[in-house]
Automatic annotation (TrEMBL):
One of its GO terms (cellular component) is cytosol. Belongs to the RNR ribonuclease family. RNase R subfamily. Residues 758-781 have a biased composition (Basic residues). 3'-5' exoribonuclease that releases 5'-nucleoside monophosphates and is involved in maturation of structured RNAs. Residues 718-781 are annotated as: Disordered. GO terms for biological process: mRNA catabolic process. This is Ribonuclease R. Keywords: Cytoplasm, Exonuclease, Hydrolase, Nuclease, RNA-binding. The keyword S-adenosyl-L-methionine does not apply.
């Protein structure tokens, strides 16, 4: 590709910035390619892949003391720029002080000029010299106003500045309203950003306003566009016989689905047999969504924009319209469905000996849930066992292959964290009534292992064909993070091998540490720090392996109803069924897949953030009823300003260091601890702690604790909410009305008293008329 050719030359061969003409000459670009070159150069400069100097010469940022990346603000006003590309572990995030932001806002993509060299272990520092793209075109926040102007305080504390709203742009918003603001003027120098209210969401305290605010904040689409709905309505609700032609008919197999009790979008089914030679025949069947959602259709564009289904605490925002996600694409029991199937022969050691991937037609024999399977296989529930006697042998085979596949993963060094998930139960009004800790059980492990082996097999299949593809990758952890983990392990008599730049750590080493600490007091602290030391998994068009799974090849193939990358994987498999892709098509895919991977990773993280935010919000609301009560917990975070304690019910709160009364406490980073100066009392990550709940602020989404044996409980005065501010404003408006009414009365009385004699009765009538008019005017106001 020409773009790669330009970048490679400028990074490795060009010793100085070059003019466009010199660059074209050096690269020997001529003829039709020259036209493409001029257009591409402008595009690359626009996206800051290359930088144009004031003398119209071009160079790459990293060779010009510049960094291109995304600004991540803190609530304290300063920020860090996270580079798009890090060429080594030494290239840390870039610290940006408040004075060097130059009007940039959270999540803006920017160019930074570095200031000097960073010291060992210290962050680099710089100033923002260019804003490439603005991220905050719309902001959700709380509206406040005076008589002549208004402003909106963003809900996101990382948006550290209020948005100025001219009076003409209030759009009916009142003080205390939750609103969506569209930025009309970006901040410049000392001038705040300016915007207009485009939507009034409601007021704090209104039913459902909390979740709706999160939805608006993350710009999650609630409704499907009319064109998408129309396309979905054209999709048939049943399968036509003609659609089965060319597919393998598997409707006689007793395929089962195993999902949560409330799941409606069922996209995977399984079937297994154990053979006489000890091998397993495992087939995994995934809804053939790519058959219905074709490339470049309205459905496809919408699915790409959404990227994933979003599972909020009180609702699901689906990637596809319900007619597809809950209808023709969902593997509902007893109904014919089109599928993409993979059949595998797996030996007793969990290795895939043979496999075949093909389009099929299936009919799910029975819909099972995790609870039903657990009760049959673990609890030995007699009634359920009897009801499912016909598939009982297969369920036992599923249990057996689950253990075989899991052991294979563990043998090769996969890292398996088992942190429980907290589910919030809501009543009909949306109020949290219960927190349920969901720990992974055998039934969930069965499906997990079957899906993992299917995903790995599909990824290896496409990699060996050397075709463009979408991978799920998880890269090696950074050396700096591993050094911190190494320091912690030393204090527990454990160790990590020393690594040099470029050396890789094997996941089996980390797995061994987890096994060694299982069930011990330090298990929690080590698991937490180890998890934080790992990088985040993402989508990529190149195969980089999956560190956490200790897998050479991995993709997401098994959830095309709710994840766009899985839909892409199905599409790529389908195109390959009729022979290898033509070179022109491969070139196009190589161009579009990196963008799809990046977009999908971003949408996945945004969805996870929204999901987490709604859960945390409801946890805070749930804890309001326990102010003043004691709980047992575990310290799961230590900072210079306090310790974070997680309770057994999954709720996390902060014990501020200022509330600790028996000593002055210092933060010792390498020990992940606060240590008392005089008492030498240590509060360390992973230690148990008994706390008292002091405050639970829904608006700020914070919970404050004090230590039961090192603090004094003082009830926190209720913070004025935006709704209470609005009530005060209404009272002020009424008071103004009363004053104006009184003023009108007085002015009317003076008029009567000063009237000429001889006109008393008629003048009294006039006075009454004035009073009535005054009353009417006040009332209207």
């Amino acid at each position: 590709m020409l773009q790669e050719k330009i970048l490679d030359f400028m990074r490795h061969e060009a010793y100085r910035p070059l003019s466009a003409e010199d660059l074209a000459e050096a690269l020997e670009i001529k003829g039709e390619e020259l036209t493409e070159f001029w257009v591409l150069l402008d595009q690359m400069e626009h996206h800051a892949q290359i930088i144009r100097t004031r003398y119209d010469k071009f160079g790459v940022p990293e060779r010009m003391n510049l960094v291109v990346g995304t600004l991540s603000m803190t609530s304290k006003g300063f920020g860090f720029v996270i580079p798009d590309v890090k060429n080594s572990e030494e290239e840390t995030d870039v610290f940006i002080p408040v004075s060097a932001l130059n009007s940039a806002m959270n999540n803006d993509r920017v160019v930074v000029r570095l200031h000097g060299a960073a010291g060992i272990g210290k962050a680099r520092e710089g100033e923002i010299i260019r804003i490439i793209t603005r991220a905050n075109k719309r902001i959700v926040g709380t509206f406040e106003s005076s008589k002549s102007f208004g402003f909106v305080t963003a809900d996101d504390p990382k948006i550290g500045q209020d948005i100025f709203i001219p009076k003409a742009s209030f759009n009916g918003a009142k003080i205390g309203a939750k609103v969506v603001v569209e930025i009309t003027k970006w901040p410049e120098n000392r001038r705040s950003a300016e915007g207009k209210v485009i939507e009034v969401i409601g007021y704090i305290g209104d039913p459902g306003i909390d979740i709706l605010t999160v939805i608006k904040k993350h710009d999650l689409p609630l409704e499907f566009p009319a064109k998408v709905v129309k396309e979905s309505e054209n999709v048939p609700e049943t399968i036509d016989q003609a659609e089965i032609t060319g597919r393998r008919d598997l409707r006689e197999f007793s395929i089962v689905t195993i999902d949560g009790d409330d799941a409606k979008d069922l996209d995977d089914g399984v079937y297994v047999e154990k053979r006489e030679d000890g091998t397993f025949f495992l087939s995994v069947h995934i809804a053939d969504v790519s058959y219905y959602v074709r490339e470049n259709t309205a459905l496809d564009y919408e699915a790409k924009n959404r990227g994933t289904s979003v599972y909020l605490v009180d609702r699901v925002i689906p990637m596809l319209p319900k007619r597809l996600s809950n209808g023709i694409c969902s593997l509902n029991a007893g109904e014919d469905r089109l599928a993409m199937s993979i059949e595998m022969i797996i030996d007793p050691n969990g290795n895939v000996q043979k496999y075949e991937i093909f389009p099929s037609v299936i009919q799910v024999y029975r819909r099972l849930t995790y609870n039903i399977v657990r009760k049959i296989l673990v609890d030995r529930d007699e009634a359920l066992t009897q009801d499912n006697q016909d598939i009982l042998p297969m369920l036992h085979n599923l249990e057996a292959i689950c253990h075989v596949l899991r052991q294979r993963r563990m043998n090769r060094g996969a890292i398996d964290f088992d942190f429980p998930e907290i589910k919030v139960k809501l009543d009909e009004a949306g109020k949290p009534v219960k927190l349920v800790k969901r720990e992974r059980n055998l039934a969930e492990s069965i499906i997990e292992e079957c899906m993992l082996v299917a995903n790995e097999t599909v990824a290896e299949h496409m990699f060996k064909l050397k075709l463009p593809f979408m991978y799920r990758v998880h890269e090696q952890p950074g050396l700096s993070k591993l050094e911190k983990l190494k320091d912690l392990l030393k204090s527990f008599g454990l160790s990590l091998p020393s690594l040099k730049e470029g050396e890789e750590i094997q996941p089996a080493i980390l797995q061994k540490i987890l096994k060694a600490t299982a069930g011990k007091p330090e298990e929690r602290i080590i698991s937490t720090v180890m998890l934080r030391s790992l990088k985040q998994a993402r989508y990529e068009s190149q195969n980089l392996g999956h560190f956490g799974l200790a897998a050479k090849y991995y993709t997401h193939f098994t959830s095309p109803i709710r994840r766009y990358p899985d839909l892409i994987v199905h599409r790529l498999l389908r195109e390959n069924f009729n022979g290898l892709l033509k070179p022109k098509r491969q070139d196009k895919l190589k161009t579009i897949l990196p963008d799809i991977a990046l977009s999908s990773s971003q949408r996945e993280r945004l969805a996870a953030e929204a999901e987490r935010e709604t859960v945390e919000m409801k946890k805070v609301e749930y804890m309001q009823q326990f102010i003043g009560e004691e709980f047992d917990g575990i310290i799961n975070g230590v900072t210079a300003f306090g310790i974070f304690v997680e309770l057994d019910n999954g709720v996390e709160g902060l014990v501020r260091v200022s509330s600790m009364e028996n000593d002055y406490y210092q933060y010792v980073e390498e020990q992940y601890a606060l240590v008392g100066e005089r008492t030498k009392k240590v509060y360390r990550l992973g230690d148990p702690a008994k706390i008292i709940v002091v405050n639970a602020n829904v608006e700020d989404k914070t919970i404050d604790f004090i230590l039961a044996d090192n603090g004094t409980f003082r009830p926190v005065a209720p913070k004025k909410t935006r709704s209470s501010i609005r009530n005060l404003e209404i009272q002020e408006e009424k008071q103004d009305e009363r004053k104006e009414k009184s003023k009108k009365k007085k002015s009317g009385a003076k008029w009567y008293e000063s009237a000429p004699k001889g006109k008393g009765r008629s003048d009294k009538k006039k006075c009454s008329t004035v009073k009535r008019k005054t009353k009417t005017k006040v009332k209207k106001k």
